[in-house]
Amino acid sequence: MSVIQYGLLLGLDPSAPTQKQSLAVLRVGHMYAQLVSGNNSNIAIDIVMNYINSFNKKHWSMRTTFSPLCLFLGASILISCSNHNNEQNAIKLDDTPTSRVDYLDISELKNSPKVIGKISSFDVINDNSFVISTISPPQVIVFDKTGTQIEEIGSHGKGPYEFMRPSIVKHSQNNIYVWCQGMLKLIVFTTDGKPINQYEFDSAIKDFEIHDNWAFLYTSGGLNESIVTVFDLTNGKYIEHAWGQASKEHQMLNMKEFTGGIALKDSFLFFSPTNFPEVSIVDLASFNLVSNKKILDPQFTMEEIPGDINDFLRDQDKSVQYIFGSNVVTGIYVTDSIIVIRTEIGNLEMEGLYFKDASKRKYKSYVFDRNMQLISTYSEPALDSKHRIYSAHNSEIYAIGLSEDLEGYKLQKVNITNNTTTH
User: Fold this and answer.
1) 22 burial via Cβ count (<10 Å: 0-12, 13-18, 19+)
2) What share of the chain is helix, strand, coil (3-state, %, to 5)?
3) Which domains can be identified in the chain, with CATH numbers?
């Protein structure tokens, strides 16, 4: 597919001067399309879609003295930089106990009446039901705990309350919220599928949480953009509160699927940048940042992106290897008693655009109590992960992953138990 075709796919007018400029951005997305071969075709689709959608449309109409890439990936600083050098906000892993994690099967998801595609997101509704979204085919389905499909939410299309790529689904306040990555809109349904409202945005988001009449948006990044912004659902406008500042590394790694971290529990918002395990907590009663803790783990290292991001992205092999080979935060999950920040770390050998050896790659999780005191860590081989995605509800963390035969999905409970060994 050509650069112009990418532009037309997004509804751009190639003859418009400001949009001609935006096509320069798509050239970088186009180079990732070279991944569309062999076993990397699914990876390529996600990279291209995440990359293109991560650009803020409002930047396209800015003065032509700035390149789009500079506007999107302009110089910025890491979240709460002043805290990075403050020892009392640092958590060291000296003599930290390790835990064991087991996945206890609850049910297998049934492929009827809808065939389940690749699951992009899931959230627990209550003790008896949960909701998933899939990209291919585009659908949102509610299941009970036995794995039986009980409700379809919304439908595929370009009309009101329809979606093209339902990449994120959340349950909150007795409603289901669906983020459509393809059309940059948030759609609200009742739990039995009746549409309530929809909100259109001019920039992509990576994740979100809902509290009262606020949507807390974990952003994909942009010029001087905060990691978390706040959208008022009553009037459809952003408010002045925002937290964190997106670094070049954070923005680059957000191109990868299932990265970054945001969670909501008991009127507190938890989030971390994508490129470093650092937990910030916001009290939503006052909208004040009340805690910021940086995890100092010698196993979690991060290569800074040198100089201009345009030069970095021109090296196709290097930029793709950076996205897939860097250590990265993949999620935050908060229960009644613990906070788990999950990361993907370790060496990933690649030859050009192809994976060579991922045996040293692993998922490492850090377990805290609700006062942000480190309890333990645990690790899992990335190759044995069954491509699990997670959701916390009340006192439990749940996972959905591939079955043993890789032909379907299982709902599981995550069981973390302490070992006697130390880190």
Assistant:
1) buried
2) 20, 45, 35
3) 3-72 (no CATH), 81-422 (2.120.10.30)
User: For residue 3, is it left (φ>0), alpha (ψ between -120 and 50) or beta?
Assistant: alpha
150 is written with which tokens? 């009980």
Mean pLDDT (whole number) for 3-8: 35
Query: 52 pLDDT exceeds 70?
Result: no
Strand order in the sheet with 129-134: 119-126, 129-134, 139-144, 149-153
Which residues touch 87 (CB under 8 Å, ≥6 apart)? none
Contacts of 82 (CB under 8 A, 6+ apart): none
- Give the pLDDT confidence of 208-240 residue by residue, as tens digits: 999 999 999 999 766 558 999 999 999 999 999
Q: How many CB atoms lie within 10 A of CB 290?
A: 11
CB atoms within 10 A of CB 183: 18
This prediction's pTM: 0.81
